[in-house]
Amino acid sequence: MPRRYRFPSPLPQRRIAPLAAWLVALAACCGARAAAADAPPPQESAAAAAGPDCSRPLTLGLHEHGLLYTSQTGEGIDKDIADEMSRRSGCHLTLTVLPRARIWQLVESGALDFTLSGIANAQRDKFAVFAWYVSNKYYLLVRRDTGVRSVVEFRRKHSLRVGLIRSFRYGDLANGFVDALESEERTTYASSLDPLYTILLDDGIQAMIVEPFDFPVIAGAQLKAQTSILEFGDPSVLHGLVMSRKSLSPAQQAAWRDVVNSMRADGTIRRIFEKYFPADLAKQMTQF
């Protein structure tokens, strides 16, 4: 079974409303701006219409991250999306679990064709193209005993440190926060979230950046008792399929974008998210 956030049973639906509302409010995705994909030139449209080219092995990198994927169960949102991409296209995708920083390096070099749940920035746009399917916000998870009540206040307390995953980027305000703390040597890096949770509980760091995929862990008794969540103020950020410019032609990029768009259009993406999130939150995240 997938690692969905499950409310205690056998509570009726009306009894779980407060916690569901908390999750929805925390991940409010209102105001997300849809980024329109560039239309391919006419000569590429015909090739894209023929569908993805399955004549060679294709590779996709997964990374361990909350509800996106966990190797303990071999399940997660990204795994479900990859499986549906393979089923719908008829192409075999070889899935490899790697640290996120390594995935970006391999996509840039063309050694990986795809990864999932990626966000764009100016640097990544040089070597990757995207097909969007979800939008969500980032938050600052802070130890309660710091006494801080805002991101600005955390920024001003120079004794406080933040834990980060290598190569992760966020919204504009969150990126500015991270860059400022990095310039002051107030950052601690790890390859995944799990070590950061441990360091946070041990007070080796006083905050870390999270998103809705991490909510089930945050809702656990120990973290929930010792932490609070602060808003950066950024709008929701689009996430999607990442395609290597080096390994995939523009026509094939368009063909795979069509696959993802068809998964959105027929509700498949939303149904995948509903396996892991309350339905109203899944709707907010996948309809932008």
Question: How does this structure look, described?
Answer:
The protein folds into two domains: 47-136 and 236-286, Periplasmic binding protein-like II (D-Maltodextrin-Binding Protein, domain 2, 3-Layer(aba) Sandwich); 139-231, Periplasmic binding protein-like II (D-Maltodextrin-Binding Protein, domain 2), CATH 3.40.190. The longest helix has 16 residues, at 250-265. Helix 2 (42-49) crosses helix 11, helix 3 crosses helix 11 (250-265) and helix 12 packs across helix 13. By secondary structure, the chain is α/β, with parallel strands linked by helices. It has a five-stranded mixed β-sheet with strand order 2-1-3-10-4. A five-stranded mixed β-sheet has the order 7-6-8-5-9. The protein contains 13 helices and ten strands. Helix 3 links the parallel strand 1 (58-62) and strand 2. The model is unreliable at 1-40 (pLDDT under 50).
